[in-house]
Structure formats: C-alpha cells, structure tokens
Amino acid sequence: SQQGEEDPQALSIQEGENATMNCSYKTSINNLQWYRQNSGRGLVHLILIRSNEREKHSGRLRVTLDTSKKSSSLLITASRAADTASYFCATDARSNDYKLSFGAGTTVTVRA
Amino acid sequence: NAGVTQTPKFQVLKTGQSMTLQCAQDMNHNSMYWYRQDPGMGLRLIYYSASEGTTDKGEVPNGYNVSRLNKREFSLRLESAAPSQTSVYFCASSDWAGDQPQHFGDGTRLSIL
After folding, report:
1. Residue A97 at interface with chain B, using a CB cutoff of 8 Å
2. Cα A44 from Cα A17, distance rounded (Å)
3. Does B88 touch chain A (CB under 8 A)?
4. Confidence at A45, pLDDT banded by 50, 70, 90
5. What pLDDT, on a 0 to 100 scale, did the predictor assign at position B68?
6. pLDDT of A86
7. Which residues of B touch A30 (CB under 8 A)?
8. Is a pLDDT exceeding 90 seen at residue B39?
9. How close A59 comes to chain B (CA, Å)?
10. Distance of alpha carbon B62 from alpha carbon B47, whole angstroms
11. How large is the average pLDDT for residues A51-76?
C-alpha cells in the first residue's frame, strides 16, 4: 500500500514563481526521498532526507521534514519551464524492510 | 554510461501470451527492482532483488516472475498476460536497499488486449 500522499495533485505556476508540494505518510520512516519524472521518462532522484534531519537544500530545491506531523515539503524556487514534471515522495521504513513506498505524485506545470 | 537500460520500450500483447521484460544496469549496484506505474497510483513494487542470487516479492507480485540473471541483469516475466497487467513497467537499481537513491530506466509501456 502507498505510504506517502502528495498534495496538491496538480499545480500550475508562472515561470519565476516558487512551487511548494507536500507529502504526508502514515508510519515511522527511516528516510524520505523526492523524485522527479518528466513525461515519458523514468524517475530521477532529487534529494534524500534522513529521519533525524529537518531541512536539506540542493540548488533551487529545499526539502523539510517534520517527523512529529509525518510530513515533508518540497520547495522549488524561481521555477523554470524545465521544472514541468511530476514529483513523487518515497519513504522507507524498517517495518517494510526498507523498501521504498511511493506516493501518487504532484504534477507541476510551469507556464512561460 | 547508460545507467539502467530496459527493453523493449513498447509492447502489445494478446491476453494469454507471455513475455519477458529485460533490465540491465552498469553501475555495479547490488539491489534491483521492478515497479509498475498506473495512472493516479504512483509506483508499486512488484519484485525486488536485494543482492545477486536473491529475489523477494513486493506489493503486487501476482502474475509475475523474476530472474536475477547476474549482478547486472534482472528480468520480469509475464507467464499469461491479462488486461489488468496493462501498465508502464520500470526497472530500478541502487547500491543497497533503503537509504540509497534508486536509478530508474525509462520504462516499458505494455498493453494487453
């Protein structure tokens, strides 16, 4: 069963704006990862945040993790047309033998 | 450096036919995975291989079999295809399970008529 749930399901923004999407999960986790999927392609790993970390940055990406609320957010700053994609969170937990469990994703459209 | 290569990219089958999806990785990863992706459902794990010589069921293994041929290759077989198996199939690999990023192929788009 899916552990993560992304919100919103879809997001449309203007180029240059920030995009924020959220992921909630149900059980205690070991790590949380974010992936991007461009249309017709495989998933590409963006960032991994461990359960003992609260925030992580990578270029224009900022990920936060709140284990007390069982939620994470992904912020993309100064969005570009090339950021148009679906974004997925994935969690792993000891209870699931550390296998990744993916959410259904947020589809982001960046308008020029 | 090709990463994860899946073949074929597209396939149409009739109900009851069999086929094998191939996956190979050139990153010397220990763990390999097969997922299916259906609209609105994210990725669901079919089978995985934590290391060469081992395979285990994932969330949706029914109707599938796998073979970890060697460290590089991990194949997925549909013995008797059903329309419910129409999906996009992704192979992935990682150094180890858990706290390692997974690297994905570009998928096989499979339609069962």
Report:
1. yes
2. 22
3. no
4. very high
5. 96
6. 96
7. 98-99
8. no
9. 17
10. 10
11. 97
